[in-house]
Write a structure and sequence with these properties.
363 residues, alpha+beta, Anthranilate synthase, eight-stranded antiparallel beta sheet, six-stranded antiparallel beta sheet, 29% strand
Protein backbone atom coordinates (compact mmCIF):
# COMPACT_ATOMS: atom_id res chain seq x y z
CA UNK A 1 0.00 0.00 0.00
CA UNK A 2 2.89 2.40 0.71
CA UNK A 3 4.18 1.98 -2.83
CA UNK A 4 0.78 2.91 -4.23
CA UNK A 5 0.56 6.01 -2.05
CA UNK A 6 3.89 7.21 -3.39
CA UNK A 7 2.85 6.56 -6.99
CA UNK A 8 -0.90 7.19 -7.02
CA UNK A 9 -1.09 8.90 -10.39
CA UNK A 10 1.07 6.27 -12.10
CA UNK A 11 -1.02 3.49 -10.59
CA UNK A 12 -4.33 5.10 -11.59
CA UNK A 13 -3.17 5.73 -15.13
CA UNK A 14 -2.17 2.12 -15.69
CA UNK A 15 -5.06 0.63 -13.67
CA UNK A 16 -7.69 2.62 -15.60
CA UNK A 17 -6.32 1.35 -18.93
CA UNK A 18 -5.81 -2.33 -18.04
CA UNK A 19 -7.08 -3.40 -14.65
CA UNK A 20 -9.00 -5.94 -12.61
CA UNK A 21 -10.81 -5.64 -9.29
CA UNK A 22 -12.50 -8.29 -7.17
CA UNK A 23 -13.64 -8.64 -3.57
CA UNK A 24 -11.46 -11.12 -1.69
CA UNK A 25 -12.76 -13.48 0.99
CA UNK A 26 -11.22 -11.18 3.59
CA UNK A 27 -13.50 -8.35 2.50
CA UNK A 28 -10.55 -6.45 1.07
CA UNK A 29 -10.11 -5.82 -2.64
CA UNK A 30 -7.70 -7.65 -4.92
CA UNK A 31 -6.40 -5.38 -7.69
CA UNK A 32 -4.41 -6.25 -10.78
CA UNK A 33 -2.95 -3.89 -13.36
CA UNK A 34 -0.65 -3.97 -16.34
CA UNK A 35 -0.75 -6.10 -19.49
CA UNK A 36 -2.73 -9.31 -19.06
CA UNK A 37 -1.26 -12.75 -19.63
CA UNK A 38 -3.93 -15.33 -20.52
CA UNK A 39 -4.03 -19.07 -19.86
CA UNK A 40 -6.31 -22.09 -20.16
CA UNK A 41 -5.64 -22.97 -16.51
CA UNK A 42 -4.79 -21.21 -13.23
CA UNK A 43 -1.22 -19.98 -12.89
CA UNK A 44 1.42 -21.41 -10.57
CA UNK A 45 1.61 -20.61 -6.87
CA UNK A 46 2.88 -17.08 -6.33
CA UNK A 47 0.50 -15.41 -8.80
CA UNK A 48 -3.07 -14.27 -8.31
CA UNK A 49 -5.11 -15.97 -11.04
CA UNK A 50 -8.21 -14.14 -12.26
CA UNK A 51 -11.08 -15.93 -14.02
CA UNK A 52 -13.52 -14.26 -16.42
CA UNK A 53 -15.07 -16.54 -19.08
CA UNK A 54 -18.16 -15.97 -21.19
CA UNK A 55 -21.48 -17.29 -19.87
CA UNK A 56 -21.28 -20.57 -21.82
CA UNK A 57 -17.64 -21.21 -20.86
CA UNK A 58 -16.50 -21.31 -24.48
CA UNK A 59 -13.44 -19.12 -23.94
CA UNK A 60 -10.35 -21.36 -24.27
CA UNK A 61 -8.22 -19.02 -22.13
CA UNK A 62 -10.48 -17.74 -19.33
CA UNK A 63 -7.65 -17.33 -16.80
CA UNK A 64 -5.31 -14.34 -16.69
CA UNK A 65 -2.86 -12.52 -14.47
CA UNK A 66 -1.32 -9.07 -14.26
CA UNK A 67 2.33 -8.15 -13.65
CA UNK A 68 1.21 -6.07 -10.65
CA UNK A 69 -1.25 -7.03 -7.91
CA UNK A 70 -2.15 -5.60 -4.53
CA UNK A 71 -4.69 -6.14 -1.78
CA UNK A 72 -6.17 -3.11 -0.07
CA UNK A 73 -9.21 -2.08 1.89
CA UNK A 74 -12.17 -0.45 0.13
CA UNK A 75 -11.44 2.68 2.16
CA UNK A 76 -7.87 2.86 0.87
CA UNK A 77 -8.99 2.54 -2.74
CA UNK A 78 -11.70 5.15 -2.21
CA UNK A 79 -9.10 7.59 -0.95
CA UNK A 80 -6.87 6.91 -3.96
CA UNK A 81 -9.74 7.42 -6.40
CA UNK A 82 -10.67 10.72 -4.77
CA UNK A 83 -7.33 12.14 -5.93
CA UNK A 84 -8.58 11.83 -9.51
CA UNK A 85 -12.14 13.11 -8.95
CA UNK A 86 -11.71 16.72 -10.07
CA UNK A 87 -8.93 16.23 -12.60
CA UNK A 88 -11.03 14.59 -15.33
CA UNK A 89 -14.50 15.04 -16.71
CA UNK A 90 -16.21 13.10 -19.48
CA UNK A 91 -19.54 12.64 -21.24
CA UNK A 92 -22.38 10.85 -19.50
CA UNK A 93 -23.81 7.60 -20.85
CA UNK A 94 -27.44 7.77 -21.94
CA UNK A 95 -29.20 4.45 -22.47
CA UNK A 96 -32.07 3.61 -24.78
CA UNK A 97 -35.19 1.93 -23.43
CA UNK A 98 -34.87 -1.79 -22.67
CA UNK A 99 -36.04 -4.24 -25.33
CA UNK A 100 -39.41 -5.10 -23.80
CA UNK A 101 -40.60 -7.07 -26.84
CA UNK A 102 -37.64 -9.46 -26.59
CA UNK A 103 -38.38 -10.04 -22.91
CA UNK A 104 -42.09 -10.59 -23.56
CA UNK A 105 -41.34 -13.16 -26.25
CA UNK A 106 -39.11 -15.12 -23.89
CA UNK A 107 -41.77 -14.92 -21.17
CA UNK A 108 -44.47 -16.29 -23.48
CA UNK A 109 -42.15 -19.00 -24.80
CA UNK A 110 -41.49 -20.21 -21.27
CA UNK A 111 -45.14 -20.21 -20.27
CA UNK A 112 -46.60 -21.74 -23.43
CA UNK A 113 -43.92 -24.24 -24.38
CA UNK A 114 -41.43 -25.09 -21.66
CA UNK A 115 -43.73 -24.98 -18.63
CA UNK A 116 -46.75 -26.63 -20.24
CA UNK A 117 -44.61 -29.43 -21.66
CA UNK A 118 -42.95 -30.00 -18.29
CA UNK A 119 -39.46 -29.36 -19.67
CA UNK A 120 -38.83 -26.54 -17.19
CA UNK A 121 -40.37 -25.25 -13.97
CA UNK A 122 -38.31 -22.04 -13.82
CA UNK A 123 -36.43 -19.86 -16.28
CA UNK A 124 -34.72 -16.48 -16.20
CA UNK A 125 -35.56 -14.37 -19.27
CA UNK A 126 -33.53 -11.20 -19.66
CA UNK A 127 -33.07 -8.15 -21.81
CA UNK A 128 -30.73 -5.18 -22.08
CA UNK A 129 -30.38 -1.44 -22.39
CA UNK A 130 -27.68 -0.05 -24.65
CA UNK A 131 -25.84 3.20 -25.22
CA UNK A 132 -23.89 3.86 -28.40
CA UNK A 133 -20.74 4.90 -26.60
CA UNK A 134 -17.99 3.10 -24.72
CA UNK A 135 -16.82 3.66 -21.16
CA UNK A 136 -14.24 6.42 -20.83
CA UNK A 137 -11.71 6.66 -18.01
CA UNK A 138 -13.72 9.31 -16.11
CA UNK A 139 -16.85 7.14 -16.27
CA UNK A 140 -14.92 4.06 -15.15
CA UNK A 141 -13.44 5.82 -12.13
CA UNK A 142 -16.78 7.42 -11.27
CA UNK A 143 -18.49 4.00 -11.36
CA UNK A 144 -15.77 2.51 -9.18
CA UNK A 145 -16.23 5.27 -6.61
CA UNK A 146 -19.99 4.73 -6.64
CA UNK A 147 -19.67 0.96 -6.19
CA UNK A 148 -17.27 1.46 -3.30
CA UNK A 149 -19.76 3.75 -1.59
CA UNK A 150 -22.45 1.07 -1.95
CA UNK A 151 -20.11 -1.58 -0.56
CA UNK A 152 -19.80 0.51 2.58
CA UNK A 153 -23.60 0.55 2.97
CA UNK A 154 -24.64 -2.90 1.69
CA UNK A 155 -23.02 -6.28 1.31
CA UNK A 156 -22.14 -6.49 -2.36
CA UNK A 157 -19.11 -8.00 -4.05
CA UNK A 158 -17.16 -5.82 -6.48
CA UNK A 159 -15.73 -7.34 -9.64
CA UNK A 160 -14.56 -6.14 -13.02
CA UNK A 161 -11.84 -6.22 -15.62
CA UNK A 162 -11.04 -4.02 -18.60
CA UNK A 163 -8.48 -3.80 -21.38
CA UNK A 164 -8.17 -2.25 -24.87
CA UNK A 165 -11.44 -0.36 -24.72
CA UNK A 166 -13.63 -3.25 -23.53
CA UNK A 167 -14.60 -4.54 -20.13
CA UNK A 168 -17.08 -5.38 -17.42
CA UNK A 169 -17.69 -3.80 -14.01
CA UNK A 170 -20.34 -4.50 -11.40
CA UNK A 171 -21.37 -5.18 -7.83
CA UNK A 172 -23.14 -8.51 -7.33
CA UNK A 173 -25.11 -9.72 -4.30
CA UNK A 174 -24.36 -13.35 -5.16
CA UNK A 175 -21.31 -15.56 -4.90
CA UNK A 176 -21.25 -18.86 -6.76
CA UNK A 177 -18.81 -20.45 -4.31
CA UNK A 178 -15.83 -19.67 -2.12
CA UNK A 179 -13.18 -21.45 -0.09
CA UNK A 180 -11.14 -19.90 2.70
CA UNK A 181 -7.52 -20.65 3.52
CA UNK A 182 -7.15 -23.58 5.90
CA UNK A 183 -10.54 -25.09 4.96
CA UNK A 184 -9.73 -27.11 1.86
CA UNK A 185 -12.80 -29.35 2.13
CA UNK A 186 -15.37 -26.72 3.13
CA UNK A 187 -17.08 -24.93 0.24
CA UNK A 188 -19.60 -22.13 0.78
CA UNK A 189 -22.28 -21.17 -1.71
CA UNK A 190 -25.66 -19.46 -1.60
CA UNK A 191 -29.11 -19.51 -3.13
CA UNK A 192 -30.03 -15.89 -3.86
CA UNK A 193 -33.39 -15.59 -5.62
CA UNK A 194 -36.77 -13.99 -5.16
CA UNK A 195 -36.79 -10.22 -5.47
CA UNK A 196 -38.72 -7.43 -3.82
CA UNK A 197 -38.57 -3.67 -3.53
CA UNK A 198 -38.11 -1.94 -0.19
CA UNK A 199 -41.90 -1.77 0.13
CA UNK A 200 -42.26 -5.50 -0.62
CA UNK A 201 -39.50 -6.90 1.58
CA UNK A 202 -41.81 -7.92 4.44
CA UNK A 203 -43.85 -10.28 2.24
CA UNK A 204 -40.96 -12.07 0.53
CA UNK A 205 -40.78 -14.90 3.06
CA UNK A 206 -44.55 -15.43 3.12
CA UNK A 207 -45.16 -15.26 -0.65
CA UNK A 208 -45.69 -18.88 -1.73
CA UNK A 209 -44.82 -18.28 -5.37
CA UNK A 210 -41.54 -16.56 -4.49
CA UNK A 211 -40.66 -19.25 -1.96
CA UNK A 212 -41.22 -22.01 -4.54
CA UNK A 213 -39.06 -20.16 -7.05
CA UNK A 214 -36.33 -19.77 -4.45
CA UNK A 215 -36.55 -23.39 -3.32
CA UNK A 216 -35.88 -24.60 -6.88
CA UNK A 217 -32.61 -22.70 -6.74
CA UNK A 218 -31.75 -24.39 -3.44
CA UNK A 219 -32.69 -27.81 -4.85
CA UNK A 220 -30.55 -27.30 -7.94
CA UNK A 221 -27.48 -26.41 -5.88
CA UNK A 222 -27.97 -29.31 -3.47
CA UNK A 223 -28.43 -31.78 -6.35
CA UNK A 224 -25.20 -30.59 -7.99
CA UNK A 225 -23.08 -30.83 -4.83
CA UNK A 226 -24.52 -33.90 -3.07
CA UNK A 227 -22.32 -36.47 -4.88
CA UNK A 228 -19.24 -34.76 -3.43
CA UNK A 229 -20.02 -34.72 0.27
CA UNK A 230 -22.43 -33.58 2.96
CA UNK A 231 -24.52 -30.56 1.91
CA UNK A 232 -26.02 -28.36 4.64
CA UNK A 233 -28.65 -25.69 3.96
CA UNK A 234 -29.14 -22.91 6.48
CA UNK A 235 -32.41 -21.09 7.16
CA UNK A 236 -33.74 -18.84 4.42
CA UNK A 237 -33.78 -15.16 5.27
CA UNK A 238 -34.02 -11.76 3.62
CA UNK A 239 -30.94 -9.75 2.64
CA UNK A 240 -31.00 -6.11 1.63
CA UNK A 241 -28.87 -4.94 -1.28
CA UNK A 242 -28.76 -1.63 -3.17
CA UNK A 243 -32.36 -0.89 -4.18
CA UNK A 244 -33.56 -4.48 -3.76
CA UNK A 245 -34.19 -7.29 -1.30
CA UNK A 246 -33.67 -11.01 -2.00
CA UNK A 247 -34.34 -14.31 -0.32
CA UNK A 248 -31.00 -15.70 0.75
CA UNK A 249 -30.10 -19.27 1.80
CA UNK A 250 -26.49 -20.05 2.81
CA UNK A 251 -25.39 -23.53 1.73
CA UNK A 252 -22.23 -25.40 2.73
CA UNK A 253 -20.54 -28.45 1.24
CA UNK A 254 -18.36 -30.54 3.52
CA UNK A 255 -16.56 -32.30 0.71
CA UNK A 256 -14.89 -35.67 0.66
CA UNK A 257 -11.95 -34.29 -1.33
CA UNK A 258 -10.24 -31.02 -2.13
CA UNK A 259 -12.42 -29.86 -5.06
CA UNK A 260 -10.87 -27.68 -7.74
CA UNK A 261 -12.12 -24.27 -8.80
CA UNK A 262 -12.84 -25.49 -12.35
CA UNK A 263 -14.85 -28.47 -11.13
CA UNK A 264 -17.00 -26.25 -8.91
CA UNK A 265 -17.71 -23.95 -11.85
CA UNK A 266 -18.84 -26.95 -13.91
CA UNK A 267 -21.03 -28.21 -11.08
CA UNK A 268 -22.73 -24.96 -10.10
CA UNK A 269 -22.83 -22.64 -13.10
CA UNK A 270 -25.43 -21.54 -13.91
CA UNK A 271 -27.65 -21.94 -10.87
CA UNK A 272 -31.40 -21.66 -11.36
CA UNK A 273 -31.15 -18.10 -10.03
CA UNK A 274 -29.62 -16.96 -13.33
CA UNK A 275 -30.33 -19.91 -15.66
CA UNK A 276 -33.22 -22.38 -15.46
CA UNK A 277 -34.39 -25.50 -13.66
CA UNK A 278 -33.91 -28.36 -14.37
CA UNK A 279 -30.41 -27.38 -15.44
CA UNK A 280 -29.80 -29.65 -18.45
CA UNK A 281 -32.92 -28.64 -20.37
CA UNK A 282 -32.43 -25.10 -19.15
CA UNK A 283 -29.04 -24.85 -20.83
CA UNK A 284 -30.63 -25.88 -24.13
CA UNK A 285 -33.14 -23.05 -23.75
CA UNK A 286 -30.44 -20.54 -22.85
CA UNK A 287 -28.36 -21.50 -25.90
CA UNK A 288 -31.37 -20.88 -28.14
CA UNK A 289 -31.74 -17.40 -26.62
CA UNK A 290 -28.05 -16.75 -27.21
CA UNK A 291 -28.64 -16.99 -30.97
CA UNK A 292 -30.90 -13.94 -30.70
CA UNK A 293 -29.18 -11.92 -27.96
CA UNK A 294 -25.50 -12.19 -27.01
CA UNK A 295 -25.40 -11.91 -23.23
CA UNK A 296 -21.57 -11.95 -23.22
CA UNK A 297 -20.62 -12.16 -19.53
CA UNK A 298 -23.98 -11.34 -17.98
CA UNK A 299 -24.48 -14.00 -15.30
CA UNK A 300 -21.11 -15.63 -16.07
CA UNK A 301 -18.70 -16.74 -13.34
CA UNK A 302 -16.06 -14.19 -12.28
CA UNK A 303 -13.46 -15.20 -9.75
CA UNK A 304 -9.91 -15.52 -8.50
CA UNK A 305 -7.47 -17.94 -6.89
CA UNK A 306 -5.09 -16.43 -4.33
CA UNK A 307 -1.31 -16.42 -4.55
CA UNK A 308 -0.93 -19.49 -2.35
CA UNK A 309 -3.76 -21.38 -4.12
CA UNK A 310 -5.34 -22.08 -0.71
CA UNK A 311 -8.28 -19.70 -1.09
CA UNK A 312 -10.59 -18.72 -3.92
CA UNK A 313 -13.94 -17.16 -4.67
CA UNK A 314 -16.25 -17.02 -7.66
CA UNK A 315 -19.14 -14.58 -8.12
CA UNK A 316 -22.19 -14.43 -10.36
CA UNK A 317 -21.64 -11.51 -12.75
CA UNK A 318 -24.89 -9.58 -12.45
CA UNK A 319 -25.63 -5.88 -11.71
CA UNK A 320 -22.95 -4.77 -14.14
CA UNK A 321 -22.16 -2.81 -17.26
CA UNK A 322 -20.30 -4.35 -20.20
CA UNK A 323 -18.67 -2.28 -22.89
CA UNK A 324 -16.50 -2.07 -25.97
CA UNK A 325 -15.29 1.00 -27.89
CA UNK A 326 -18.70 1.56 -29.52
CA UNK A 327 -21.32 0.26 -27.08
CA UNK A 328 -22.17 -0.02 -23.39
CA UNK A 329 -24.82 -2.49 -22.23
CA UNK A 330 -26.59 -3.13 -18.95
CA UNK A 331 -28.61 -6.34 -18.68
CA UNK A 332 -31.17 -7.65 -16.20
CA UNK A 333 -33.22 -10.82 -15.80
CA UNK A 334 -35.86 -12.18 -13.47
CA UNK A 335 -37.10 -15.59 -12.39
CA UNK A 336 -40.27 -16.76 -14.14
CA UNK A 337 -42.49 -19.73 -13.22
CA UNK A 338 -45.89 -20.93 -14.39
CA UNK A 339 -47.49 -18.59 -11.84
CA UNK A 340 -45.68 -15.47 -13.01
CA UNK A 341 -47.48 -12.41 -14.30
CA UNK A 342 -45.89 -10.45 -17.15
CA UNK A 343 -46.70 -6.98 -15.77
CA UNK A 344 -45.29 -7.87 -12.35
CA UNK A 345 -42.10 -9.32 -13.82
CA UNK A 346 -41.57 -6.31 -16.08
CA UNK A 347 -42.00 -4.02 -13.08
CA UNK A 348 -39.20 -6.00 -11.40
CA UNK A 349 -37.04 -5.60 -14.50
CA UNK A 350 -37.46 -1.83 -14.49
CA UNK A 351 -36.50 -1.75 -10.82
CA UNK A 352 -33.37 -3.77 -11.53
CA UNK A 353 -32.31 -1.48 -14.39
CA UNK A 354 -32.75 1.54 -12.14
CA UNK A 355 -30.71 -0.19 -9.44
CA UNK A 356 -27.86 -1.01 -11.82
CA UNK A 357 -27.67 2.57 -13.07
CA UNK A 358 -27.71 3.93 -9.53
CA UNK A 359 -24.99 1.52 -8.35
CA UNK A 360 -22.74 2.48 -11.25
CA UNK A 361 -23.52 6.21 -11.24
CA UNK A 362 -24.97 6.09 -14.76
CA UNK A 363 -27.61 8.46 -16.16
Amino acid sequence: MSLLRNNILDFLEEFSVTGTIITANSGNLLLGWGEKEFSSAPFEIGSVSFFSPDFFLQNKNPWFRHPHTAEMTPCDLTNILRSKRKSEKGPEITFCNPDKVFFENLFVELKQHYFQSGKLVKGVPFTGKQAKVGVTTPILLKSLRKLLSYQEQKKIFLYGSWNNGEGILGGTPEFLFRKSAGNSCRIETVACAGTGSIEEKDVLLSDEKIRREHNWVVEGIVESLSPYGNVLSDNTGIRGFPGLYHLFTPIELQSKDDLSFDLLVDLLHPTAAIGAYPKKEGMNWLKEIHKKFDRHRFGAPFGYIGKNSDEFACYVAIRNMQWNKDMTTITAGCGVTSESDLCTEWKEMILKFATIKSMLGLS
